[in-house]
Amino acid sequence: MTEQLRVGLVGAGPWARTVHAPSIADHPGTRLAAVWARRRSAAEELAGAHGAEVADDLDELVSTVDAVAFAVPPDVQAELATEAAAAGRHVLLEKPIAATVDGAVRLAGTVADRGVASLVGLVRRFAPETQRWLEELARLGSWVGGGARWLNGALLDGPYSASPWRRRHGALVDVGPHALDLLDAALGEITEVLAAHRSPEDLWHLVLGHAGGATSTVTLSLRLPLRPPVAELFVYGEHGHRALGGWNTPPRECFTALLDDFVAMVASGTTTHPCDVRRGLHLQHLLHAARRAAGQAD
């Protein structure tokens, strides 16, 4: 692009401060133009650190930017991102893209109708070690199963432990989209949640069916004080066992790679990407199916 993409940021919480704002401000193809948050003082602090303006509301922010990035709870994002897309702004979305399937359908439909670019912050997909792993799996083929384990104490302590939506919905909604997305990319589209169970302590176990006949399992918790935390992803088949090694790329570097793709999409007029809003909608359906299988309501 000959000019930087002007990006407005909605939200000023921990993820916005540590990943969104610095990544957007430092990327050669983007400029953090404006920040709007529920607490104006938080927006002022974040905007001031990166040379951005402070918007009084979403309409003001949208009027001054080419794209809007969101770092807010899923239910808030679904409503505001739909408004931004309806105004013709490209959108950078967090996962999950909504709190309900209906909200995700409305958002995805508006993005499609307006022909804007969209990407969902499935940051692990943009790590170079993940891309190399997926390329090897695709080259070899014939995988029959796999699994993911994502276990830590993030809701017991740390910057996200006080997040109301994370505490309410737990591991499935927070890290579940990452696990589902990676297994889907590795083994083929997840077509069915065969079984699901959630313990009173928010320990999730899922059994998934994939197109082509593969099956996988997922174990998730953000309330286990494990040191070090566990983050594992693997597949197996006639070529043996292949685990995703490393997990070394920091989230901010992954988000920068996401921005590379986003800027390229906008510059070329492309609106399709493996991690666009349609991916977010697919994952929303899977989250809903998992909750239903476990006897949980949305």
Task: State the main characteristics.
Gfo/Idh/MocA_oxidrdct_glycsds; Rossmann fold; NAD(P)-bd_dom_sf; globular; six-stranded mixed beta sheet; nucleotide binding; alpha/beta; 10 helices; 298 residues; GFO_IDH_MocA-like_dom; six-stranded parallel beta sheet
Walkthrough of the structure:
Pfam families: GFO_IDH_MocA, GFO_IDH_MocA_C3. InterPro entries: Gfo/Idh/MocA-like_OxRdtase_N, Gfo/Idh/MocA_oxidrdct_glycsds, GFO_IDH_MocA-like_dom, NAD(P)-bd_dom_sf. By secondary structure, the protein is α/β, with parallel strands linked by helices. The protein has 2 domains: 5-123 and 252-276, Rossmann fold (3-Layer(aba) Sandwich), CATH 3.40.50.720; 128-247, Dihydrodipicolinate Reductase, domain 2, CATH 3.30.360. It is 43% helix and 23% strand. It has 10 helices and 12 strands. The chain has helices spanning 14-26, 40-49, 58-63, 74-86, 101-114, 128-140, 164-174, 176-187, 251-268, 277-293; strands at 5-10, 30-36, 53-54, 67-70, 90-93, 118-120, 143-151, 190-198, 204-210, 215-221, 230-237, 240-243. A 6-stranded parallel beta sheet has the order 3-2-1-4-5-6, with helices on both faces. A 6-stranded mixed beta sheet has the order 8-9-10-7-11-12. Strand 11 and strand 12 form a beta hairpin. Helix 1 crosses helix 9. The relative contact order is 0.16. The mean pLDDT is 96.
